[in-house]
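Reminder to self: tokens first, then the designed residues, so the page reads top to bottom the way the pipeline ran.
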């Protein structure tokens, strides 16, 4: 992928994270922000949105760091295990392990007389989003992309989410989760398109150089 499309990926992912955080922030903390809308305080609404948009940019940077780290880890995994099937099996085990810990450890640490249902529901939501994204990725590319995509959407998202998971503030849980999911899914699904675009741009530049070289050769022949 050329530098132009790398910058495009970075900037558009920033935008996805910022906008998602701005929208989800109002929804997650609606009890606090509802009076702003009922009173039509546009200045306060705009300043609040800008603040949440800025926080979303930070979430987006975390997401992008996680994505490029996973691309590196994926290559190492393929190199170490020497088999796609074996590496996929390892990833499935890690997915199950992380989802179990996401439910069990949070329940043991934070539950105060409440049931396990809410903790289980959050992990299931993460899994469902991961399955849907992985399915779309598989349709875009091939069957081999399903497990890596699911691993990224579940395991890597959970690792990126750890700072808020440790605090267990419900508003911040959703405020960070949705921008991370949006950014991770966006990067996962847009990468192949940007790679194809980079190839087309490279081929176009090569053809232009070849045509320019041919024209230059013809001009030299005419001069002689």
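Designed residues (224 positions):
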């Amino acid at each position: 992928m050329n530098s132009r499309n790398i910058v495009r990926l970075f900037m558009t992912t920033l935008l996805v994270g910022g906008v998602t955080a701005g929208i989800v922030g109002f929804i997650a903390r609606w009890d606090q922000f509802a009076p702003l809308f009922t009173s039509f305080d546009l200045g306060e609404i705009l300043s609040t949105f800008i603040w949440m948009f800025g926080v979303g940019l930070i979430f987006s940077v975390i997401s992008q760091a996680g994505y490029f780290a996973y691309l590196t880890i994926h290559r190492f995994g393929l190199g170490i295990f020497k088999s796609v099937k074996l590496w996929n099996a390892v990833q499935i085990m890690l997915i199950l392990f992380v989802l179990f810990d996401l439910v069990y450890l949070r329940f043991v640490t934070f539950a105060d007389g409440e049931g396990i249902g809410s903790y289980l529901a959050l992990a299931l939501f993460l899994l469902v989003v991961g399955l849907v994204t992985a399915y779309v990725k598989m349709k875009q590319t091939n069957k081999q992309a399903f497990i890596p995509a699911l691993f990224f959407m579940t395991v890597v998202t959970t690792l990126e989410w750890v700072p808020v998971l440790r605090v267990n503030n419900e508003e911040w849980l959703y405020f960070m989760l949705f921008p991370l999911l949006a950014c991770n899914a966006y990067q996962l699904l847009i990468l192949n398109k940007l790679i194809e675009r980079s190839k087309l741009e490279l081929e176009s530049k090569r053809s232009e150089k070849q045509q320019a070289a041919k024209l230059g050769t013809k001009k030299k022949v005419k001069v002689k």
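The CA atoms of residues 33 and 54 lie 17 Å apart.
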